[in-house]
Amino acid sequence: MSFSSKIFAFLCVCSQLLFSQSKEIQFLTGKDAEHTKEWDFWINSGRKSGSWSKINVPSHWEQQGFGSYNYGRDYVTYGKNFKFHDETGLYKHKFTVPNSWKRKTINIVFEGSMTDTEVKINGKSAGPIHQGAFYEFKYDISDKIQFGKENILEVKVSKMSADKSVNNAERLADYWILGGIFRPVYLEANPKEHISSTSIEAKADGTFRSNIELNEINSANNIKVELFDVKNNLVGESQVQIQKGDTLKHIQFSIKNPKLWTAETPNLYKAKFTLNKNKKTNSQTEEKFGFRTIEIRKGDGIFINGTKIKMKGINRHVWWPETGRAVTENIDLKDVQLIKEMNMNAVRCSHYPPNKSFLKICDSLGLYVLDELAGWQKKYSTEVGKKLVKEMVTRDANHPSIIFWSNGNEGGHNFDLDAEFAKYDLSNRPVIHAHHKPGNAFNGIDCNHYEDFYSTKNILEGENIYMPTEFLHAQDDGGGGTSLADYWELHWNSKKGAGGFLWAFVDEGLVRTDFNNQIDVNAINAPDGVLGPHREKEGSFYAIREIYSPVKIDLKTLPNDFKGNIPVENRYHFTNLKDCQFEWKLVKFKTPFSPESGFDVIKTGKAESPNIHPTEKGNINLNLPSSWKENEGLLLTATDAAGKEIYTWTWKIKLNEEISKQFSKSLIKEFPVSVAENEAEFILKSDEKEFIIGKNDGLLKSVIVDKKGKKMTFKNGPVFVNGTMELSSIKSFTEGQNQLIEVNYKNGNKIIWKLNSNGVLELNYEYSLSGDYQFAGVSFDYPENYVINAKWLGKGPYHVWKNRTQGQAYNVWQNLKNSTRTGQSPWIYPEFKGYFDDVSWLQLDTAEGKITVGTKEEKMFVRLFDFYGIYGAEGYPKLPSGNISFLDAIPPLGTVLAFNINDKTESLGSESEPNHLNGTFKRTLYFYFGLPDLGDENKQFTMPKENILTD
């Protein structure tokens, strides 16, 4: 053997020896829901019961085709005679362990099992039955392991607990009840003398403290603690002497000028703990941590590192539709990224501790975490609760992202447990009570759920900090981003406003293996997220993203004297806007008869990042070229210091009056225009087109688009969506080459039809209103069944409500027709139907041909077909007449929580009030039916004289 080979072999042995001195892990299940292992399985009732078969672990057994389903609120749905499916599953698995583990301490670790779990190794009990589904527990099985032969693991899991308080806390809940070993199971082997756990406190002033728990100390005499920065540079160290029999040691020292952890600056350090015997390493363990200080200043706010912060948070269930709460690190990562994409800074782990990987990702990417003990409406008993608090806090205490412990949800607070958290948390984080009734503030923080805007305002004028741990319930299309802007401004500008946590992150849709793998949201109970089960983005997702943007820009339209300066407010807590980047684009939009959507980028540039400190205001100077007005749109994108997009704002440069002229210019051919009439109708004619107007009401009755009499069934408009339409007078007259029909109504409303020589049917209308209205404008009828897709120049691609216009960008959008109901299968977004904002022109592609509509006035909403935002026994809010509407005002949307509908939207803030309208409203619409002749002489085919499908 060569010298280099000997050196390599020596290093390998050394590395193996070093490894043997640290904790070793052997997975008995797979590492996550995607990487599983087969175990033997038997279940006592439900599907596939009564015989041994195989199951993939970790998993919920229902998702593997075993047992039966329950939703937690079934006890409410079915009443006092209801019983949950009480299933028991038996697991068996054979495993071996390496001989090198002899004389080591071997634990078997369960990260989560629902619920009562009894463990045997080689027929011997590993320890007491564990009760509580969401908590990591372990048994020392060193004396039960057989070396050199197979070991048999047997696990008995009862979905219902023998302890009624566990059932009350975990089963009587607003989530799916799923049984089985749903998180990994593994063996961990340590030297007999080892560090069993560490609890860390690291303050913003650089103080580092740790409680170090020790196991079977006999000959080791020293613990060394080393701190490393993100580049693995040693930044501090200290040592403490230990003696035989020691079980706990405390160490404290400081480093200078640490980089602090916040959600904006998630700076992490590594602590390496080494147990030595006369400088020889016995065992090592490492922990990631962050330097940060949490303060609750009563009557003032929540402070991190001396700076007041406000929570832009959301409630998250651990969830994936195919696998339930058995998830993967990639799912955890995706969720953190999506939360941060909404410009949020906080997450509540409702209503139980999450996977360990989720917390690690929150540490590294930056989210403030509220870690919660289970207890949806009922509490754990003190006896069980004490054990579970210990398991939860011991596992999670070193995560800098965790800012609060939550002692249960709403009615699930056991006050006897409040003091338990600090026993295992060296940093003594604040404990909160996430409650749904007034008068339950704790530690100076009121977390009361689902207050309206005005009761929120009253609470903020009281003595406590207000941080609602649930608000704006996002069931169906309500809540979430709807009316959030008013709530957020209220919290941002209030001294005691601490922000809050929206309900909820995702619709808890579950793939039902008993119903052909359909996704079930349990009717009204679980479609309450701002994303679908597979993380499909609803309109609220984008509204939240703009509302919570730390770069706050309120400029809605470009003023006439715009010179490139945009007012901006810095709503970061720790970041100067000079650390962000700003890039602008000047664009030209695609035209109605172009086969494409979107825009062409004409010019780009970067703006100098302004020096604006957190919470201060200033301006961004874009330094646009002198020719900027020759373009049609302006985009501004802000990115953060990590290169992630914060938000992109869009403004149109050309007004609709100019855009409508460009539309007319594309119609190059002109034809004579005439009018005919009979007893009941006026008939406007141009080339092959005819438009029939009823004499008794002035409404469009029919559209004929060719000489064969082919009709387009766009008709019965314009109907004013408010008031009556009693005819006062109707007449036809000529204006130059154009034919007009003027219609007057007894209430003063007026319409004028005008057929232009280029084939455009022009509609001018005006109406007067005084009072509060849900909507205003005019409607037509068109068969929804005939529509293929819609393309429009305006805000999109999602529909809006009066109290949720945020998050949409000005562009040429195109949506294929769908019948999506928000929060329901098949979760195809954006929804095709709805109110669409700031539309310059709209083109419907239909089975009858194209229908193109434009306007010359600003700020037109378009309503497409029938839809509702929230659902009870009926849908809300009510719709205008007709099914295609051109509107000057649209309704706000309320909220719904299960059966409880709030359609009195004015309680949700000023944006949610009905439209206060007073005056006369005028608008011009331009209609073009079919495809225009654009002068292309290169014909691809000869039109048949007869079409057997339509003629």
Structure description:
The protein is mainly beta and 951 residues long. Helix content is 12%, strand content 38%. The protein contains 11 helices and 64 strands. It has a 9-stranded antiparallel β-sheet. The protein is elongated. The termini are far apart.
Beta-strand percent range: 35-45%
For the largest beta-sheet, the strand count, sense and barrel status come to: 9 strands, antiparallel
List low-pLDDT spans: 1-20
Overall, the morphology is elongated
**End-to-end distance:** 92 Å
Quaternary organization: single chain
Side-by-side strand order of the widest sheet: 48-49-50-51-64-57-56-53-54
Quick overview of this protein structure:
With 951 residues, the protein is mainly beta. Helix content is 12%, strand content 38%.
Fold blueprint:
Blueprint: H1 3-20, E1 24-27, E2 37-43, E3 53-57, E4 70-71, H2 74-78, E5 88-95, E6 104-110, E7 113-114, E8 116-121, E9 124-125, E10 137-140, E11 151-158, H3 164-170, E12 176-177, E13 180-181, E14 185-191, E15 194-202, E16 207-215, E17 222-228, E18 234-241, E19 248-254, E20 269-277, E21 280-289, E22 294-297, E23 301-304, E24 307-309, E25 311-316, H4 329-341, E26 346-349, H5 356-365, E27 368-373, H6 382-396, E28 402-409, H7 420-424, E29 431-434, E30 445-446, H8 453-460, E31 465-466, H9 484-493, E32 499-502, E33 510-512, E34 518-520, H10 539-547, E35 551-552, E36 565-570, E37 581-589, E38 599-607, E39 617-621, E40 633-639, E41 645-652, H11 656-665, E42 673-677, E43 681-686, E44 689-694, E45 700-704, E46 711-712, E47 715-720, E48 727-735, E49 738-745, E50 750-755, E51 761-773, E52 776-781, E53 787-796, E54 809-816, E55 834-836, E56 841-846, E57 849-855, E58 861-864, E59 870-871, E60 875-876, E61 884-889, E62 895-897, E63 900-902, E64 915-929
Parallel strand pairs: 25-26, 25-32, 26-27, 27-28, 28-29, 30-31
Antiparallel strand pairs: 1-14, 2-3, 2-5, 4-12, 5-11, 6-10, 6-14, 7-13, 8-9, 8-11, 15-16, 16-19, 17-18, 17-20, 20-21, 22-23, 23-24, 33-34, 35-36, 36-39, 37-38, 37-40, 40-41, 42-43, 43-44, 44-45, 45-46, 47-52, 48-49, 49-50, 50-51, 51-64, 52-61, 53-54, 53-56, 55-58, 56-57, 57-64, 58-61, 59-60, ...
Helix pairs in contact: 4-5, 8-9
